[in-house]
Fold:
Amino acid sequence: MTASAPQASNTESQASAPKHSAPQTKRKRSRLLTVRLSRFLAAAVAIALVTMLAASAFAMRSWMTSKLDSSLESMLSRLEKNAELTLEQPLPPPPPHHDDDDAQAPASNSPSADPTATPTDKGPRGLRGPGSSEGQLQLIKHDDEVVSGVVKQFDVVELDSEAQQQLLSLRCDSQGHDVDLKNYGAFRVMCTQKDSQTLIVGLSLAANNSTLFALIAVEGVIALVVILGATFIGRKWIRREMLPLGEVAATARNIGSQDLIAAPTVDTFDRVDSSIAQPGDEVGDVGFALNTMINNVETALQARAESEQRLRQFVADASHELRTPLASIQGYTQLLQRGATDQELALSRIASESARMSGLVEDLLLLARLDAGRELASDPVDVIPLAIDAVSDAHAAGPDHQWSLDLPEIDDEADSCTSCTVLGDESALRQVFANLVNNARIHTPAGTHVKVGVQTIAGTASAPGFVRLSVADDGPGIAPELRATVFDRFVRGDTSRSRQGKGSSGLGLSIVSSIAEALGGRVDVDTLCEGEGAPGEHGTTFSVILPAAKL
Structure:
């Protein structure tokens, strides 16, 4: 029995889930730009039409009020002339009528007449004349005598005391005033004083209010139709204009759905159509920016893939290079332990392989430091002595090659070449010369002429000059398939340039390139194989160009 409670709760939660989905969907729809723009358009049109409606109603009311005031001024002018007659002269008797004219009996006896108003012959005489009309009002006060009346249902009805007091309380400034008389309706009245008399005339506002209400009703219906039409048409237009933005969003979603971690490389990302991705409008700017971002992402992913590939290759090559001397050291160590080999020879080979492995590790550490952005020393270094020392060492290491120097002329008094000074690390620069010279010695046959040179490149007043370190040989040159990767790590020449290639780790030129970049320079290679140029023209020239020091 206890298990029924969780089941019931699950059922309740499942039943309640759809109740929350509808509001969430509604909130989501309300966040759509199309919906928000449609609502904004409808609100803007509604505000504009309501403003126009209010302005037109105000203008119409002002015009009708001015017409009433003009009529009241005329009525007041006539009343001023005839006020004494209205008070003193008796009213003419009512015209005789026959029994068949019962339908034209006074309106005061009709059911629609005001029950509080009674017809009287004491009303103002001016209201009984031929110029009177429905809704006219007059009040004349002379001393304590008050005569008043209003034309209702084609008859003159005397105003009650409350209405008279309400009219007499108005300011007599010959200006129009709106007043709502109980039991009689709304009137536009005008008051003036002449001697001891107070004269008030008025016209009913019922017709004006009816006309104004009809105008507002008609304009309101028209405004509602316009708002609905503008909302419908505007939403259709907004949706059509937003279609390119939908394509941009679809492209972004397609890219976002790809797993770039598990598969960091892709053939080609989808792009926003060029007809849409045109700078100039908001959607075009977004599409163009998205395409630019996609290009950058593709470039970054490609660079990442290439970097990972180089890293894997680097690790594999480093492992291979270290495995060979380690295997040799292990083998000779086992022979020594068994006493199966000459001890002196074994120790010599172990020392040789240890030195080889130590040099490889030092090269790898140097490359790692340079890759990490570790700055080298920045001291003034004259490269002339470094070039001379490199050639001297090359004579001893490679006596089967022809070595020469190509140096600029040095002033005997100065005993140095100030223009051949660069800012850098002396040990790193020595390694540059040593690696270039060793590369030429190892990868060229015996008898090859190798020239080590230093040249100065003059600068300008605003820019310093440069120093060019070069190592040129007349060997067989670098094969075309190796030229693009000659500065990559663990890259060796082919057999035509590797007579002694097993003595190379494949890191020398990579170290030269890294050092040159760390010192703000670059390294170039110019090579020509047999048959690529004129007969007898072949060889390789490595050039390291470094900024000259400002002394």
The chain has a mean pLDDT of 79. The longest strand covers residues 185-194. Residues 262-374 form a domain with the Helix Hairpins fold (CATH 1.10.287.130). The two ends are 97 Å apart (CA to CA).
